Structure formats: structure tokens, C-alpha cells
Amino acid sequence: MKNETQNKLIQYLIEELAISPDGVQFALRHASPCLNVLPMVLWQYGFVTIQELERIWDWLETADGNRAFS
Known about the structure:
globular, 70 residues
């Protein structure tokens, strides 16, 4: 995941989905070094619902016109 996209994703998670910064940091530690799995880690540990997970994937698909998983 590109650094700029990662920073914007973190901002989206905190501001739009109301995930606590500590929750995001927890997920980042568990997703490292493969940050592409961050959304799945958030879901796995109960920080987001399956619907929110889909919203994250949708966001990643359209973020700045970049495909975060390419």
C-alpha cells in the first residue's frame, strides 16, 4: 500500500468509521509488513463490521484514482 494512500486510509478509518486511533495502531502492528491486509485485520479483531469492511474496500478502490491493491 502506498504511503500516501495509507495515511489517507488511516484518516478515513478514524474520521469516517470512528475507529479509535489506538485500534488503528493495533491493526497496523498486526498487519505489518503486509499493509494490504489492514482492512481484514480490522474486521478479524472486531474493529469493523462486514459492511464497514466493504466500505473500506470500496474506498481503497477509488482513493485518489489509485488501486491500493495493484
